[in-house]
Amino acid sequence: MRHxxxxxxxxxxxxxxxxxxxxxxxxxxxxxGTNFALWAGGADAVELCLFDDAxxxxxxxxxxLTHEIWHGFLPGVRPGQRYGYRVHGPWDxxxxxxxxxxxxxxxxxxxxxxxxxxxxxxEVYGHDRDHPAADLADTLRDARDSAPFVPKxxxxxxxxxxxxxxxxxxxxxxxxxxxxLHVRGFTMRHPGVPPELRGTYAGLGHPAAIxxxxxxxxxxxxxxxxxxxxxxxxxxxxxxxxxxxYDSIGYFAPHAGYSASGTRGEQIGEFRAMVDAxxxxxxxxxxxxxxxxxxxxxEQGPTLSLRGIDNAGYYRLAADPRHYTDxxxxxxTLHVVRPHVLRLITDSLRYWVTEMGVDGFRFDLxxxxxxxxxxxxxxxxxxxxxxxxxxxxxxxxxxEPWDVGSGGYQVGAFPPLWTEWNDRYRDTVRDYWRxxxxxLGDLGYRLSGSSDLYAGSGRRPYASVNFVxxxxxxxxxxxxxxxxxxxxxxxxxxRDGSDDNRSWNCxxxxxxxxxxxxxxxxxxxxxxxxxxxxxxxxxxxxxxDELGRTQAGNNNAYCQDNEVGWLDWASAEDPEWRPLLDxxxxxxxxxxxxxxxxxxxxxxxxRHGPAGLRDLGWFTADGREMTEADWSAPSATLGMFLxxxxxxxxxxxxRPIVDDSFLLLLHAGPEPLDFPLPGPPWASAYRLLVDTAxxxxxxxxxxxxxxxxxxxxxxxxAQLLRAE
Length: 724
Hints:
Layout: E1 2-3, E2 21-26, E3 31-39, E4 45-51, E5 57-62, E6 64-66, E7 69-75, E8 82-88, E9 91-92, E10 97-98, E11 113-114, E12 152-154, E13 178-181, H1 183-187, H2 201-204, H3 207-216, E14 220-223, E15 227-229, H4 233-237, E16 248-254, H5 266-280, E17 284-289, H6 306-314, H7 339-354, E18 360-363, H8 366-369, H9 381-388, E19 396-399, E20 418-422, H10 423-434, H11 440-447, H12 451-454, E21 464-466, H13 476-479, H14 515-534, E22 538-542, H15 578-593, E23 607-608, E24 613-614, E25 616-619, H16 628-631, E26 637-642, E27 662-667, E28 673-676, E29 685-691, E30 704-706, E31 710-713, E32 717-723
Parallel strand pairs: 1-3, 13-14, 13-22, 14-17, 17-18, 18-19, 19-20, 20-21, 21-22
Antiparallel strand pairs: 2-3, 3-7, 4-5, 4-8, 6-7, 8-12, 9-10, 11-12, 15-16, 23-24, 25-26, 26-27, 27-32, 28-31, 29-30, 29-32
Helix pairs in contact: 10-11, 14-15
């Protein structure tokens, strides 16, 4: 190829409107350079701005406009070049127009970003925040240049996908165990990860980090947001950060702050190497993605990208167009019904699958994406496009099935292809073990896959992602230690975070030296993990729960990029917490080894076979099979018999699936109980496999108990027995 000189203002060639973004490669006459294309539907003019290493800016007017896409080819512009846009148009917030060429804008399709935004400089706001008339401030345009204070896009070469280090694991939903983690928080204190790699993609891909995941037995990691995000100025002024990352500003770019190798495109290769390392270990990568809103916030927020490109074209505006329709609680909502917004999202999703190698997505506030004009609509353009897309319909799709708008709670309503975070599972299981006993019918549904939510639409038990804890809320240890949140460190006078924690402190609020309370708390954690990992559906663990991780009662650590939010790996070898880790591994291994614990179809409850056994049996505290009347009453004790003889479906070779049968006993009562074990035809004897009353399961006597006899259950305990 011929290498052209660095272009001047008159050296912009027409270029192409497709693909969007900055694409390096050969242009006309095989001249090497970069094609730039930006959708800016209502703009009057677009300037491409290039920056050298000293920050000096060169502007190039894009004169070509095709189907609302401004485009041009610049010979000689190579990978590593930093760039942004200035977009011209009317300034009239009362009509929804917020063009301001004084503000440098990030390309929505930038595949790498250099620099970060911390929200503090006044220059990054499109409106005059300093005007004395507060009610007019956001209607007056600010003329100060924002370029020195905002991140820039980086030109990168087209990815030439190498042969993968390992094929995608392609784990079936029914076989999945998800582990929700934060790239930075998981690795920052890991003693086996080299200091220079901690907090980075390379750190998560390091053998020491992966070893914990493989020994634990999880099949997928769900990463908190890794799209390029911005920091909130109000947090920065308090000495805090946007730790969780739920303020995306670049939907194609791996967050540069998690890169150990550089921010001029090197972060792409580092991310892909992490993906390859996890795939080599048999672990899938699911991204938590935030397409419902952006970091630009409400009308008082900064102008970083979409607001300055075409405010009314990208965002849902209110009846008064100066304001935004906010279904997210974050100030704005992307207008997903518009074709170019829908294209932005689906182009981004496909890029992360086909180029970056990820295996699925968890959609934050997915109900906001499913809104058509206003109401949530399961036939909305977004869901329809996903359902027919040949790439996206084949990956794992998880909905957080709610938003903060009217009618936004949609648990159980998403269509086939989708799984959902099941907060009804979380609440019911928490209530049961804290002693606020739900009706047994509700508990039974949650333990057996939530057929009341998912069976009616033809979905399977794995439509339910079961969880007891997640990043948002108490950790498992804090759930049994605190009844009141302790969020003062967030700087919001403890007003932030949920007040509905459904937690129980076991009699003492906060840390205690009382050995009885400490033992009960450890037992409660074992109870909750045992319930989660033996329930039908897809279990999701919060990283660190298996290690007894605490956030000291903070149930909203979104801004705690410090020891509060990071995992403390010292507890992995602490004699107090090592048994919890061992139990978690044991339960995941049991789940992996026994298909009856990861069913692909709902239980029928009907009697089968010559013995007339049900595929699922339920028993009261006195050993009787449950009746309809029993289901409507609360109880501290429940027995659940899972028959391995009546598993529907066949294995990949067409053979019937046959497994052991199990009896799970849950006892949340405050006193011990002698439970009558079901005798024949259920089982003639039972062998004890797990007893949460025991600190160390390796020391528990794996005794055999006759059917028809009784088994002592300690207060607040669970037992798993195999039918002999």
